[in-house]
Design goal:
By secondary structure, the chain is of the alpha+beta class. Helices cover 16% and strands 35% of the residues.
């Protein structure tokens, strides 16, 4: 998600594809919008495909760390959805890919 797309869009949920570089390095890009502090605490929990990741922070590049063992459950190019549930919880779910 690019910078400046708005807090409302994050709050309602936004979808994008996972990059192969994210899977290799163990992070997910979320947003570089500095107003995200209006939506999430500095340290928040992430519910990532049923795994609860506690105490995550968004770094200056707009990403947060996810253990590689958890990221192995998805493929590069898979669509994921970010949903801010409340100030202390961000939910990340995968979406079904349409059959080609």
């Amino acid at each position: 998600m690019a910078a400046g797309q708005g807090i409302r869009r994050i709050q309602m949920g936004t979808t994008r594809n996972v990059w192969a570089s994210e899977l290799r390095r163990g992070y997910l890009f979320f947003t570089r919008d500095r107003r995200v502090t209006e939506l999430l605490d500095e340290q928040f929990d992430v519910d990532f495909l049923g795994h609860r990741l506690a105490g995550r922070r968004i770094d200056k590049y707009g990403r947060f760390q996810v253990p590689c063992r958890v990221l192995r459950s998805i493929e590069a190019g898979a669509p994921i959805r970010f949903e801010a549930v409340n100030r202390s919880l961000l939910r990340v779910v995968t979406l079904e890919q349409p059959e080609a």
